[in-house]
């Protein structure tokens, strides 16, 4: 069974559209994250949720809105897509709030905005 | 703020060569340190970790030692294989920040 699964794996869309990426984890973890990986492989956190509560919101345009219906799911909705949104988006989860607890990552969603 | 700096890639080696990928960090307090590996088309996987000074993390023949005096966590392997070709990320978690701060990644290619 996949621990952290994201859908879709690939997403190609036009500028101005609205799209969503879904993420589910079956590890029983309390915290989930969205990371963005740009074309140079640089990874940066976007959001994290703990038990459905937003705890980290790094300087991300408000066109990006995470939604956590329960602690096993963290979806990412993007409005008015722009060319610069093209990247690979990774969902991840971890056991609890303590530092030193590593993250489990999904396989990524490659978003291409044309 | 907290940051991680890795050696510039790409790194290309022959099979059975010795590998070192340098990683240094800046952080307040005493961070935990990690190495992740990303194989083509996949998400990151934890390779090894160390949570306090002088700890050595190891896995799959890879090792890294937490050096507080030099703020480093260099990744080493004695004899690399073609299957080790991937992108390697150094990361830290500090101050209860509940997030990882990643380095820029180092692409490693091993030729047969």
Describe the structure.
The complex is a heterodimer of chains A (114) and B (112). Chain A is mainly β. In chain A, 0% of the residues lie in helices and 55% in strands. Chain A has no helices and 11 strands. In chain A, the strands form 2 sheets. In chain A, strands 2, 4, 5, 6, 9, 10 and 11 form a 7-stranded mixed β-sheet that branches. Chain A has a 4-stranded antiparallel β-sheet with strand order 1-3-8-7, with no helix packed on it. In chain A, a hairpin with a 2-residue loop joins strand 7 (64-70) and strand 8. The model of chain A has no long low-confidence stretch (mean pLDDT 89). In chain B, the strands form 3 sheets. In chain B, strands 2, 5, 6, 10, 11 and 12 form a 6-stranded mixed β-sheet that branches. Chain B has a 4-stranded antiparallel β-sheet with strand order 3-9-8-7, with no helix packed on it. Helices cover 0% and strands 50% of the residues of chain B. In chain B, strand 10 (86-93) and strand 11 (101-102) form a beta hairpin. The relative contact order of chain B is 0.35. Chain B contains no helices and 12 strands. With 112 residues, chain B is mainly beta. Chains A and B meet through strand 5 and strand 10 of A and strand 5, strand 6 and strand 10 of B.
């Amino acid at each position: 069974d996949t621990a952290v699964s994201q859908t879709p794996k690939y997403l190609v869309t036009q500028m101005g559209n609205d799209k969503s990426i879904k993420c589910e984890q079956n590890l029983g973890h309390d915290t989930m994250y969205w990371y963005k990986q740009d074309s140079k492989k640089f990874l940066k956190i976007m959001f994290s949720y703990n038990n459905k509560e937003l705890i980290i919101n790094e300087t991300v345009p408000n066109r990006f809105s995470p939604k956590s219906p329960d602690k096993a799911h963290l979806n990412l909705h993007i409005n008015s897509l722009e060319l610069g949104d093209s990247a690979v988006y990774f969902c991840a989860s971890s056991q609890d709030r303590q530092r030193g607890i590593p993250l489990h990552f999904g396989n990524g969603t490659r978003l291409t905005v044309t | 703020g907290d940051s991680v700096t890795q050696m510039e890639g790409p790194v290309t080696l022959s099979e059975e060569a010795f590998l070192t990928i340098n990683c240094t960090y800046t952080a307040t307090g005493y961070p935990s340190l990690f190495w992740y590996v990303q194989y083509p088309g996949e998400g990151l996987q934890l390779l090894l970790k160390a949570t306090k000074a002088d700890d050595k993390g190891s896995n799959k023949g890879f090792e890294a030692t937490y050096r507080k005096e030099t703020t480093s966590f260099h990744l080493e392997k004695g004899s690399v294989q073609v299957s080790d070709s991937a992108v390697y990320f150094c990361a830290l978690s500090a101050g209860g920040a509940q997030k990882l701060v990643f380095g820029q990644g180092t692409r490693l290619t091993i030729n047969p």
